[in-house]
Amino acid sequence: MLKYLLPLFLFGVLAAFLAAGLKLNPREIPSPLLDKPAPAFALPVLGAADKTLSNADLKGRVWLLNVWASWCVSCRDEHSLLLEFARRQAAPLIGLNYKDEATAAGYWLEKHGNPYTASIMDIDGRTGIDYGVYGVPETFVIDRRGLIRHKHTGPLTEADLDNVFLPLIEKLQAENP
Amino acid sequence: MNIHHFQSTVDMPPFHQYLSLMACALIFWLSLPASAAVEYHSFSQPEQEQAYRTLIGELRCLVCQNQTIADSNADLAKDLRRQVYEMLQQGKSRQQIVDFMTERYGDFVLYKPAFNARTWLLWTGPALFLLAGLFAVFRVIRRKKTVGQPALSSDRQSRIEALLEEGERE
């Protein structure tokens, strides 16, 4: 009996692994930065190049970092959601304008609307490397202590925002700094 | 008959031979690893250049996923090559650069991931499967051996022999 059941069992195990493998998204690479301090930056602000914004300026607040660029096609997919998010004023939304040009980026925001509290310019992509950016758009949630608590790769969906981001922001805002 | 003309046609391989040669060359050329135009970096020491070449051949381009940053022409790959170059110029060691990359992109950035609590199955898996296979083969062979020698009781054996003898006599 075992002789016939064992191959069947092994097949079942293999099939389960393959089925799970099919459902995984190979683009979704777990970030090693989770629960680690958000990498430091001090970058010029888009539209006000004489000003700089650093992560220290946001210490003590729960905030979002959204990596975007005017050349990024899928950024347009999530843009209306970001505008909606900005209207709710749940948390500051900082844009990391990744490897872009100030004029093109400024024009893009004028055309599609500006959901960002401020956008900072990472022209040579060094801050992007520090945050492990590999697919724009990406969105990070940073807590009051300055730790990265969530990372989302790719365009946000309404479900992501309602089921993950907004509850998480609420939870983090209730935490003591 | 013009001998010269005759010879020249004989010495010339027929056109289809060129064609197959060209096809071979094309296939060979296509199967060469596509290497991106890697920008030129100057190194003061040959060891540093060697370290640079090795490192960019071991780091994964996260945008294209199945290419190293040496092979890829993606923007991110260019930036990561620049990062590796700059860190080498600053005198950083190979391990420091690998740590820098894994801190930001995780073990996935390495084509040869480190052996640790999370990756041990990945590394030992093939050997485990081989051992399991050898064990199965060993068991099958042993079983076959016992089947090859049928265990017959001695009176049955003598009956078979008696029957065979009887058949021969008839």
Q: Key features?
A:
heterodimer; A: alpha/beta; Glutaredoxin; 5-stranded mixed β-sheet; two-stranded antiparallel sheet; 5 helices; B: mainly alpha; Helicase, Ruva Protein, domain 3; 3 domains
What does it look like?
The complex is a heterodimer of chains A (about 180) and B (about 170). Helices cover about 40% and strands about 20% of the residues of chain A. With about 180 residues, chain A is of the alpha/beta class. Chain A has one domain: 3-Layer(aba) Sandwich (Glutaredoxin). In chain A, the strands form 2 sheets. Chain A has a 5-stranded mixed sheet. With about 170 residues, chain B is an all-alpha fold. Chain B contains 7 helices and no strands. Chain B is elongated, with a radius of gyration of 34 Å. Residues about 1-10 of chain B have low confidence and may be disordered. The interface of A and B includes residues 26, 29 and 131 of A.
Mind sketching the topology for me?
The complex is a heterodimer of chains A (177) and B (170).
Chain A: H1 2-23, E1 42-45, E2 48-54, E3 63-68, H2 75-88, E4 93-98, H3 102-112, E5 118-122, H4 126-130, E6 138-142, E7 148-153, H5 158-174
Parallel strand pairs in A: 3-4, 4-5
Antiparallel strand pairs in A: 1-2, 3-6, 6-7
Chain B: H1 3-11, H2 15-31, H3 46-56, H4 75-89, H5 94-105, H6 120-148, H7 154-169
